[in-house]
Write a structure and sequence with these properties.
The structure holds two protein chains of two kinds. By secondary structure, chain A is mostly helical. Chain A contains 16 helices and two strands. Chain A has a two-stranded antiparallel sheet with strand order 1-2. In chain A, helix 4 runs parallel beside helix 9, helix 5 packs antiparallel against helix 6 and helix 5 packs across helix 12. The longest helix of chain A has 27 residues. Chain A is globular and about 65 Å long. Chain B is α/β, with parallel strands linked by helices. Helices cover 35% and strands 25% of the residues of chain B. The longest helix of chain B has 16 residues. Classes of the chains: A mainly alpha, B alpha/beta.
Chain lengths: 333, 498
């Protein structure tokens, strides 16, 4: 056998090999958590409000909604797609539940059935999106953009003003704590762990990467392409629906502008976390980092009383920098 | 042109160590070497894509330390790669003048002179009758696209033309035309660097040949002074006595039975069967339906009519379901159909076999790793590191990964489409060994190939296709390149009808 370049590289670093390889394969993750430590570190040193435990917990809580949406978005982006419906799905889940509560005199007995209804709405919408994409073979971005536009219209038809009448116990979903840790942080952590195991340790999870890497290869490698894709959009919309239900509990009113901008922000978080926007590469651990970084930055901005418009501008800059930093090495050559 | 003592290292590893190479005007100089020997690196240095670490490049008596891509172009260096650099949605004329648009006085592109330039260049290549300059490139055959690439090189007045395995993508009937063109270009006084894995082409075409191995120049020889076995010896460092391992088993019962299969208006009324433990060769020119048949068997492409029975039951006709019952296709193009390139060897090897490692819905990573290591060992991938990205592997290793992933699935019928295209001699021999081993275990093998020696060396029976029809079945005793070619080109029909 000829001595190949890879071969020689292999022999080149025998002792530090494992570590070097870890860094090489997980560079984006190391980078994002490094930046978080840097931002949090600097902010903690210079601002005493920032380093208070209640503020740090606040950052965690503020990242819940985006965190949930971004997990779903990660899974879709791994398949090489993009889900522009997430904000509208979160909104329609919250609005539907709020409308029924308002019509039923805030009956607390409806809490569990309505939560299930909200999740069902998300699941069904995700299924429809997935089926449309697999059947039309059109660009997922355009398909989901179209669906998002339809949902936006439906949401406005449901209500253009905030809906009151959410029962008090429902608000506990957001308020409740076990010890000092809010229940919603625990829920998010559980979903993250589940999603991590799903993407790394299950057959369908592997299939996501295969589909994102190459549709043709995936089909030829006994991967069920359509099922994998539909599953990804169902998961994404399901996560968005959970986010919508949490959001309803946080604000206490059915808000027709709820989750505004979450579609874009979730993509920013995914891109920051190092998942390739072309699909097939990256880890959802990175996305969690992206979410935490955005939450920490937004917290710092609020403490420094930076105008919200500048925050928007900053977000745009971040995504451009992230995309440039992670551009595929082949296009660099 | 003269390259001397070129060195190039990537991260401490020498891809090229002290390579010297020269090319005179009016000669065809062949460059051969296994995958990973440094051919591509050398080409990239000549075209200016890479900067050498040391060494000199001398062109027309002027010495350069390195070339810039645009500088290389101005010096008249052009390369035709295996993957063409053509824009499929543009016309032939637009593609030809892409590097240098003829401008009119008003500063806009002069359409008339662009068309006449294209026509003139195609005429010089003897292709003006076949290729319309206004046709979109996507409607051309591979052979015609290659001619457009050469015309593009002529448009910038290339004096040094590098052809990277031009024959690998070409159906054999277009090969003669290509050779004629290359010879004509040589006779015009251009220097041509011709890269190929097929040694017989070198003897047919080249004036001199240089062998690269592991980044070193092994030798440069006048073609008439050397022979096949000397080149092979230089290439692999050992004598290849017999590439094809002998058969040592007898075929068993019928695994797959195909009756009157028609596909998509490309393949008509095909009947054949495959027995356990045999190699059934599929021969035919490009576009004869060979690949279509392979794909149709696992459910890719629309089967219009006919019956396909696999182990007594109708075949599943879906890639995933076919794999489940042990029928797998190792596709023609490993890069676009065989591998998820941005993923590791381990990911790819495990992909079709995940159900083997699933326990209560969860992947058992250590079991996966054991299986992957076993596969790497079985197909002898070197280096045996499962976490390497498949993107950076040599063609031979990539093909071994594709073969390995399906061996892990314990198949009963393996369909190889061009199992050794574009891979080096050593890797080829190893693939042949694997195929033999499969048949020894009673696996049925279908092998479609455009390389007649490998079909003849490996098959028990050969089916020859011509324009979508099965011409004949040839049994082992009657194998000869001549018989196959006559059937594949349809010569017999013409004679009969004449």
């Amino acid at each position: 056998m000829a001595v190949t370049v890879e071969d020689a590289r292999e022999r080149f670093s025998p002792c530090s090999q494992q570590f070097v390889r870890f860094l090489r394969n997980n560079a984006s993750i190391v980078l994002i958590y490094g930046i978080i430590l840097l931002v949090v570190g600097i902010a903690a040193v210079f601002n005493e409000n920032f380093r208070s435990p209640s503020n740090l917990m606040n950052i965690m809580r503020q990242s819940i909604i985006l965190g949930l949406i971004a997990i779903g978005q990660s899974v879709v982006i791994l398949t090489g797609g993009m889900d522009m419906t997430v904000a509208q799905v979160a909104r329609i889940a919250g609005l539907t539940v709020a409308t029924i509560f308002a019509a039923q005199q805030s009956n607390p007995a409806l809490i569990v059935p309505l939560i299930l209804l909200g999740l069902l709405i998300g699941t069904v919408l995700g299924g429809l999106t997935g089926i449309l994409i697999t059947q039309t073979h059109a660009n997922p971005f355009i398909i989901t953009f179209g669906i998002a536009s339809i949902l936006r219209g439906v949401n406005l038809a449901i209500s253009t003003t905030p809906i009151r009448g959410i029962p008090k116990p429902y608000l506990q979903i957001y308020e409740a704590k076990i010890g000092i840790i809010p229940v919603n942080v625990i829920v998010m952590a559980l979903i993250w762990i589940a999603a991590y195991l799903f993407t790394t340790r299950t057959r369908n999870g592997r299939a996501l990467y295969a589909v994102g890497g190459s549709e043709r290869v995936a089909r030829l490698s006994a991967v069920r392409y359509n099922r994998t894709l539909i599953l990804a959009y169902v998961f994404s919309a399901f996560c968005a629906a959970i986010a919508g239900l949490f959001l309803l509990a946080r604000t206490g009113v059915g808000d027709p502008s709820a989750a505004e901008g979450m579609d874009f922000q979730s993509i920013v978080a995914v891109a920051l976390g190092g998942i390739s926007l072309y699909g097939g590469k990256g880890s959802i651990i990175g996305t969690l980092g992206g979410v935490l970084l955005l939450a920490a930055l937004s917290n710092v901005f609020n403490l420094l009383q930076v105008n919200i418009y500048y925050q928007q501008l900053f977000l745009g800059l971040i995504v451009l920098i992230a995309v440039a930093a992670y551009k595929s090495p082949r296009s660099a050559a | 042109m003269q390259l001397s003592h070129i060195e190039k290292a990537f991260g401490g590893i020498h891809a090229l160590a002290d390579v010297s190479f020269d090319l005179s005007a009016g000669e065809i100089h062949a460059l051969v070497g296994e995958n990973g020997a440094g051919k591509s690196t050398l080409i990239k240095i000549i075209t200016g894509a890479y900067t050498p670490d040391s060494g000199k490049i001398e062109i027309d008596g002027i010495t350069y330390n390195s070339l810039h891509p645009s500088q290389a172009r101005d010096l008249g260096i052009a390369a035709v790669y295996q993957e063409f650099n053509l824009l499929p949605e543009l016309s032939v004329a637009e593609n030809i003048s892409l590097g240098k648009q003829p401008l009119g006085r008003n500063g806009l592109i002069d359409l008339k002179s662009r068309a006449s330039l294209a026509y003139e260049l195609l005429e010089r290549l003897g292709a003006q009758a076949n290729i319309d300059p206004n046709e979109l490139v996507k409607y051309l055959t591979v052979g015609e696209q290659q001619i457009v690439e050469i015309a593009k090189a002529l448009a910038i007045n290339a004096r040094i033309l590098i052809m990277d395995e031009p024959s690998a993508v070409l159906p054999s009937r277009d090969l003669d035309r290509l050779f004629t063109i290359i010879r004509a270009l040589r006779d015009e006084g251009r220097g041509i660097i011709y890269i190929s894995h097929r040694l017989n082409e070198i003897f047919e075409l080249a004036d001199r040949v240089t062998v690269l191995k592991d980044g070193h120049t092994m030798a440069t020889k006048e073609v008439f002074e050397t022979d096949n076995s000397e080149l092979v010896h230089l290439l692999v460092g050992r004598e290849m006595t017999d590439m094809y391992p002998p058969r040592d088993n007898t075929p068993g019962e019928i695994l797959l039975d195909v009756h009157d299969m028609c596909v998509d208006g490309v393949v008509f009324d095909v009947n054949f069967n495959v027995k356990a433990g045999e190699v059934l060769g599929l021969a035919g020119l490009g576009g004869s339906g060979r690949t279509t048949v392979c794909r149709a068997l696992v459910g890719l492409g629309e089967v219009r009519s006919g019956e396909i029975m696999y182990m007594g039951k109708p075949a599943p006709m879906m890639p995933a379901a076919a794999a489940k019952v042990g029928m797998v296709l190792i596709p023609e193009d490993r890069k676009t159909h065989g591998l998820v390139l941005n993923q590791t060897m381990r990911f790819n090897l495990a992909l079709p076999n995940l159900s083997q490692f699933i326990n209560l819905g969860v992947l058992n990573i250590s079991r996966e790793k054991d299986a992957v290591l076993k596969a790497i060992d079985e197909v002898q991938i070197n280096p045996p590191s499962p976490d390497l990205s498949t993107e950076n592997l040599s063609g031979g290793n990539q093909q071994k990964v594709v073969v390995g992933k399906w061996l892990l699935a314990n198949p009963k019928l393996v369909i190889f489409d061009e199992p050794t295209r574009g891979i080096d001699v050593g890797a080829k021999a190893e693939i042949y060994l694997r195929i033999r081993e499969l048949t020894r275990q009673g696996v049925g093998v279908i092998m479609a190939s455009s390389e007649l020696p490998e079909l003849i060396g490996m098959s028990d029976r050969i089916l020859v296709f011509h324009e979508g029809r099965l011409m004949d079945e040839i049994s082992r005793d009657d194998f000869s390149e001549e018989t196959i070619m006559r059937l594949a080109t349809g010569t017999e029909i013409e004679e009969a009808s004449a």
